[in-house]
Design brief:
TATA-Binding Protein; 147 residues; disordered N terminus; 5-stranded antiparallel beta sheet; alpha+beta; DUF302 domain-containing protein
Length: 147
């Protein structure tokens, strides 16, 4: 038992922390207008949106199944895309950067803030991934209409 506890403690002490913050921009533009602007911003970078996760719809559809009656989002989607050139560059620098691909930008509106649409993305670690973060930031800002 002592050995199991020691191994568990050692694993917890040596396990890396992967907490990530989010960068968000808020706009008074409608959800649909921000989605349109995001799609254009991604295409404008020469990228293709691989998938759209309709997270808000899923959470609303399943809230009763998990014993909740809370509506979290009026609308919420996550857009996933990748850049072959930048992904290769950051993965050649550190192959474990695969964990960040594809790159996601989320857009949501909340019932308690009907005139606001939020656009954001998770931050990336220092080093080569900052080039990806700069790309994400420019796309998110363009979608939100932020200078």
């Amino acid at each position: 038992m002592k050995n199991l506890l020691a191994l568990t403690a050692a694993a917890l002490i040596t396990a890396p922390a992967f907490a990530q913050d989010a960068v968000t921009y808020t706009t008074s533009d409608s959800f649909d207008d921000v989605v349109f602007a995001l799609e254009n911003a991604v295409i404008g970078q020469g990228l293709v949106i691989d998938s759209v996760s309709h997270t808000g719809d899923m959470l609303e559809r399943t809230k009763g199944d998990v014993g909740s009656d809370v509506t979290l989002f009026t609308k919420a989607d996550v857009f996933s895309f990748c850049s072959a050139a930048l992904s290769r560059k950051v993965m050649e620098a550190d192959y474990t950067n695969i964990q960040f691909c594809p790159y996601d930008i989320f857009i949501y509106t909340r019932p308690d803030a009907p005139g606001e649409t939020v656009v954001g993305y998770r931050t990336f670690p220092e080093g080569p991934m900052q080039e990806i973060q700069a790309l994400m930031d420019s796309i998110a800002k363009e979608a939100a209409g932020v200078e």
